[in-house]
Specification:
Radius of gyration: 19 Å
CATH architecture of the largest domain: 3-Layer(aba) Sandwich
Number of domains: 2
CATH class of the largest domain: Alpha Beta
Oligomer: single chain
Helix content: 25-40%
Structural class: alpha/beta
CATH topology of the largest domain: Cobalt-precorrin-4 Transmethylase, domain 1
Strand content: 15-25%
CATH superfamily of the largest domain: Tetrapyrrole methylase, N-terminal domain
Bound molecules: S-adenosylmethionine
Strand order of the largest sheet: 3-2-4-1-5
Number of strands: 10
Largest sheet: 5 strands, parallel
């Protein structure tokens, strides 16, 4: 029986990785990743020499079969994504779901927990976080209005991800629902240009628009 380790990796700062994650990456037979260049950078940093196999949402079924064969042969594999915890708004789920169908005793799936942009942002928000709603990325076209209504009507603080290309438009659409929303926008967490904007939504939009809009963003809406 092979083991598939689901390994969380840094969301920016390469030092944000657990001892156990490094140990597992050193011990497995293969590393499955989204983008081999991104993962090789991490492996090089920790002087880990391992064969990497790219896996992404659109991987053909035969790739899943190949991974299955490796596990059935008793090989141990680590699945990583480009950043953070695999499966949280990134590829991996489909593969895990296929492999979980096979399940033990043939395949064991083991989490190696660590960073995620959602928990990093939540940890600095100061907003009530006993319960929260995580919505991933806003839909790009249809169902956007419904997405913002869900946030405006939520009883619990809401966390979502957004890209630099849409962050201002998204916040503007949310502001239309309720101008008094208090939010934080966490940009480039753990990286050189880490910035956290806090306050009423209109004020935050103004602050973001003052600079060059670049990087990765997490938004949290207070409740
Ligand atoms: N699986 C990842 C995790 O556990 O956070 C999330 C993957 S998702 C494809 C990528 C999105 O996460 C980015 O577009 C951004 O919204 C958010 N993100 C990732 N790294 C970030 C960082 N360092 N600072 C702020 N947001 C980040």
């Amino acid at each position: 029986m092979g083991t598939l380790y689901i390994v969380a990796t840094p969301i920016g700062n390469l030092k944000d990785i657990t001892f156990r994650a490094v140990e597992v990456l050193k011990e497995v037979d293969f590393v499955l990743c989204e983008d081999t260049r991104v993962t090789k950078k991490l492996l090089d940093h920790y002087e880990i020499k391992k064969p990497v196999l790219s896996y992404h949402q659109h991987s053909k079924l035969n790739k899943v079969d190949f991974i299955l064969t490796l596990l059935k042969e008793g090989k141990n594999l680590a699945l990583v994504s480009d950043a953070g915890t695999p499966g949280i708004s990134d590829p991996g789920n489909k593969l895990i779901s296929k492999l979980a169908e096979v399940g033990p005793p043939q395949i064991k799936i083991v989490p190696i927990p660590g960073p995620s942009a959602v928990t990093a942002a939540a940890s600095i928000s100061g907003f009530p976080m006993d319960k929260f709603l995580f919505l991933g990325f806003p839909p790009k076209k249809r169902k956007r209005k419904k997405f913002f209504e869900e946030i405006a009507n939520s009883k619990h603080s809401v966390i979502f991800y957004e890209s630099p290309y849409r962050i201002v438009r998204t916040l503007e659409e949310l502001r239309i629902m309720n101008q008094e929303l208090r939010i934080i926008v966490a940009r480039e967490l753990t990286k050189k240009f880490e910035t956290v904007y806090r306050g009423e939504i209109g004020e935050v939009i103004k602050e973001i628009e003052k600079g060059i809009i670049k990087g990765e963003f997490v938004v949290i809406v207070e409740r």
